[in-house]
C-alpha cells in the first residue's frame, strides 16, 4: 500500500531528523523545576501507545526538558536512551571475568550464552543503521532486528537460571538488562508508528 504524500513527507522528516541523535549528548533535567507539567503530560500521553508504558514514562521523563512536546525529539530520545543502555549492557558483559564464564559452563549447557557480546554488538549496529535510513519501513526493519537480537540474548541467559550464589546474581543482572532492552526497542517502534499514522 502506498503512503499518502503528506504522510510520506512526515515520515521522511521524522527519520532524517534523527540524524543528529548519535552526534550529541542527551540533556538531562537536573531538577524537577526545570521540567514542565506540559512536557511530562505529553510524554505520558505518548507512552500510552506503547506496550511497556511505565518503562516508557520512566525512561523518558528524565529528559522532559529536552523533549518538551515535540514528537521528533520524543522518538530521538527514546532511541538514544535504548542505545545508551545497550552500550552499557555490552560493557557490563564484556567485563565479566573469565573465571565467571568458566564456572558458568557447569550450569549453562547452551553454548550460545557466550554469544551475548556478539548479539549486543550486532544490535547496536542495527540501531545505528536505523539512523541512516530515509524510509519508515527501513527504519522499523533495523529497530526490529535489534529487538530480535535482544530477545535471543535474553533467551540465552534464561538457560543459566540453575546457577547459584554469586553467579545467579550475575546471570539475573545480565538477563534483566537485556529484557529491558527488548522492551525499549518495542516502545521505540510503537512511538514511531503512532507519529507516522497521524
From TrEMBL:
Keywords: Signal. SUPFAM superfamilies: Plant invertase/pectin methylesterase inhibitor. SMART domains: PMEI. It comes from the Eukaryota. GO terms for molecular function: enzyme inhibitor activity. Residues 38-191 form the Pectinesterase inhibitor domain. Residues 1-23 form the signal peptide. Pfam families: PMEI (PF04043). Gene3D superfamilies: Invertase/pectin methylesterase inhibitor family protein. Belongs to the PMEI family. This is Pectinesterase inhibitor domain-containing protein. It comes from Brassica carinata. The lineage of its organism: Eukaryota, Viridiplantae, Streptophyta, Embryophyta, Tracheophyta.
Amino acid at each position: 500500500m502506498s503512503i499518502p504524500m503528506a504522510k510520506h513527507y512526515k515520515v521522511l522528516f521524522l527519520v532524517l531528523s534523527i540524524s543528529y541523535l548519535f552526534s550529541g549528548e542527551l540533556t538531562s533535567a537536573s531538577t524537577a523545576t526545570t521540567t514542565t507539567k506540559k512536557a511530562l503530560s505529553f510524554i505520558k500521553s505518548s507512552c500510552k501507545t506503547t506496550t511497556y508504558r511505565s518503562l516508557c514514562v520512566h525512561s523518558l521523563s528524565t529528559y522532559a526538558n529536552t523533549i518538551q512536546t515535540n514528537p521528533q525529539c520524543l522518538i530521538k530520545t527514546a532511541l538514544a536512551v535504548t542505545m545508551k543502555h545497550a552500550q552499557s549492557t555490552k560493557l557490563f558483559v564484556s567485563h565479566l571475568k573469565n573465571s565467571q564464564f568458566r564456572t558458568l559452563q557447569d550450569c549453562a549447557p547452551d553454548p550460545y550464552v557466550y554469544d551475548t557480546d556478539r548479539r549486543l554488538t550486532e544490535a547496536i549496529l542495527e540501531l545505528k543503521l536505523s539512523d541512516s535510513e530515509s524510509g519508515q519501513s527501513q527504519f522499523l526493519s533495523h529497530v526490529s532486528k535489534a529487538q530480535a537480537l535482544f530477545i535471543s540474548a535474553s533467551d540465552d541467559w534464561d538457560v543459566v537460571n540453575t546457577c547459584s550464589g554469586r553467579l545467579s546474581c550475575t546471570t539475573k543482572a545480565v538477563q534483566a538488562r537485556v529484557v529491558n532492552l527488548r522492551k525499549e526497542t518495542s516502545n521505540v517502534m510503537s512511538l514511531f508508528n503512532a507519529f507516522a499514522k497521524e
